[in-house]
Amino acid sequence: MTKITTIKITSETRERLNKLKEYERETFNEVINKIFYVLNTLKKNPEKAQRVLLNIDRRIKRKDIINKKIKSRK
Question: What pLDDT was estimated at residue 42?
Fold first, then answer.
């Protein structure tokens, strides 16, 4: 079984992590692991890391657009 721990982060860091979520229920653990993946990929293959970042950015923007449409309907 995986052990779970608590870490202290500032409110600013929490907000920055929230902005990197690709979907609403994505955990901070998933976001942090995604960051590690991109950093490790960057060392070995910068072009691939750039493509990964662009794809993540597209998904985040798409999520934001959908959320705005949902909020505007209410």
Answer: 96
